[in-house]
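Worked example 2:
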Amino acid sequence: MHDQGRRRVGLVTVQGKGRINNVRLDCPKLIRFHELTEDEVFCTEEAAQAGVTYENTSTVEPLVLLRYFGPKSIRTPPKWVRTEKQDLVMNRCQNL
């Protein structure tokens, strides 16, 4: 999925694993003391304007992200462009 937003945004992975512009995302099942996780990402305004690509790398579950914005950071909803691979994965997950 490709997002051509205009504003900076924070993201938290709440289910699944994948990538955002080749940065690895993974929702931890268990976090031990002093372990680093790969579940939070901050997308800068420059990166958002250039376009961000989300990729689900799991074959068994969807990639679910919680997006949070600062006050007055978004005026219009972002335009999503769905890809063929995303449709294929979503159909597989719905048929489980």
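The longest helix spans residues 84-94. The radius of gyration is 14 Å.
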